User: What shape does this take?
Amino acid sequence: MAEKEDVTEKWARIGMPEQEPDKRRENFEEVPLGYTPEMAVKEASRCLQCKSPSCVEGCPVEIDIPAFVQLIKEEKFDEAIKKIWEKNRLPAVCGRVCPQETQCEGRCVLGKKGRPIAIGNLERFAADLARREGIEDVSPKAEPSGKRVAIVGSGPAGLTVAADLLARGHQVTIFEALHKPGGVLVYGIPEFRLPKKIVADEIESLEKQGAEIMCNTVVGRTITIDELFDQGYDAIFVGVGAGLPRFMNIPGENLVGILSANEYLTRANLMKAYRFPEYDTPIPRGRNVVVIGAGNVAMDSARTAVRLGAETVRIVYRRSREEMPARAAEIHHAEEEGVELLLLTSPIRFLGDEEGRVAGMECIKMELGEPDASGRRRPIPIEGSEFEIVCDLVIIAIGTGANPLLTRSTEGLELNRWGYIEADPETGETSIEGVWAGGDIVTGSATVIEAMGAGRRAARSIHEHLTREGRSPESCGV
Amino acid sequence: MASGNVILNEIEAPLIAKKAKPGQFVILKAGERGERIPLTMAEADPERGTITVIYKVVGKSTELFKNLREGDSYQDAVGPLGQPTHLERVGNVTCVGGGTGVAVLYPITRGLKGAGNRVISIIGARTADRIILEEEMKSVSDELFVCTDDGSRGHHGFVTEILKKVLEEETLNLAVAVGPVLMMKLVSEMTRPYDVKTIVSLNPIMIDGTGMCGGCRVLVDGENKFACVDGPEFDGHKVDFDQLIQRLGAYESEERESSMAHRCRLDR
Assistant: This one.
């Protein structure tokens, strides 16, 4: 996924300029620099304007992709962004973090022979231009419905529900447990991949549209679902996101210097620990860093460690390159920055020094056997292949479980056997009347855009619920 | 309140005050660049809409907290977090507290007394002027022993010396210990041969306090538990205190650096 111009193609995809690897290793600024208007128009003109566009089918929020691309081609940039806003309130975010290669771009007809049109880059271009030029969403709003909806969690799912319901005339209040809104966009995804200013701007724009945001409010502790209903909310959406980080349960895992990726990234991103001591929260700076796991979170952790001055950063993964769940672009960026991949390798135990700090890790080589339940070939340890590596910081990025805070304190909320909320995949309805759920708390770890898709479907269902039953038909605004 | 570096803050937080139960904690953050600091509450007054925390100034963050004046506000306060103390009538109970741990111990002691237990309390500090909440503890205990390391008040020595006597003379059904980790470890070791169930309240390093970061994991009976959602109270006979002590020291050098930088700026 090297974003370099490919001149061998008849239709050359326009790559996005990037900070050079040697330079970006030293800073937390964004890596891809964005298209110029000329680049955007040139790229947009590659679009075939298919009659029945498969790219739209690949988009969880069904953006009218050919339409906005055509508007960019015609240099009607403000109309292009308005076309995107019809379906997506967070385009500056999605243009950056969506896995387009498996979604819209993955379906692009151009991709069959050459490279698909750079839909993500174009979405980002339109969104950034709108931000720079202060273009605002002035699409007509529905009449106020008089209905109030509580949204629990201000991550991608919650923000999407808020935007969609505001547009339909409902009042929304977002409850956030942390001190800043944005969820994973703020605590999880690093600055160099998604500048926090962008997230803050998107949230500010929601507030301008009337969203109320209550930070430092843990639903399930500070206030319960029942109490929210008592306060007069007509519906509640639960999008509390990922929960307790998974550990490997191998000896030595609690040594000092072994952190979950959630902790490492939260320190760096939410608490701005990469600017310690200017900011008060510290972050361990390893010389030889190991990241266990190979998803996007692992790449984010490894690239953060590079920027914090590590001499070596190694990704340790028990399967092979083909099975790595991270986006190809993230793996490519990480390798460009000097991150090494230690594949077909699994940790067996951690070794500590006399002060209880991690000093090394014993690993075993793996080989791939028959496919397992996930359809991927099962890694099998190779007997006698144990070896040790030296490391002083280990980040464990092997996923998260369900957050138990809200679910444990809400009676009648049905959970599956892993503790995730049982919700209708089409509507997000839960076992409690008036409560919807979506995002990682329903599906387990997924992507930003999938959470947004769940938010979109839930908002539709909530709106139907609120305007049904003649509750106040004169004011429902449909 | 005690002199020197022990500070009491009564904080207006009506939503938290309404919900808070003994044993639960809040996370406080002084300003934009501040750390999130978990502190177990000493008091929650739903009528006044306030919560009270008592802490010892140990680094930059608590220094910032200390410098807040009446009427100032914390930028962020969130809670109540963690599981409340399980308060029931079990018979004879001893409540052991050291330093500012007594602040956390007080509402638990009051709850246990209120549940109908006979309560023998033992509190200690380095010196007499570091003893906190003595009157309050007295009012909710059937017996109260005070200890100081230097003998400036009460028993000259550690709380564990009094505990030893109590264990020899009484049949206890429950012990609760809150204070420095080493004290909680010693209390737990002492009660173990007497088979007295012992509850300790832990304060490991954590960031979010809502079950996300995993920084607060503690080995309990060989299994990882998260203090923020499973605790902060655990069975003292099952906690790996040595590992907890090591993990609490994870950022010692950074904490020194941060404090030094803060003081240098103040001195300028």
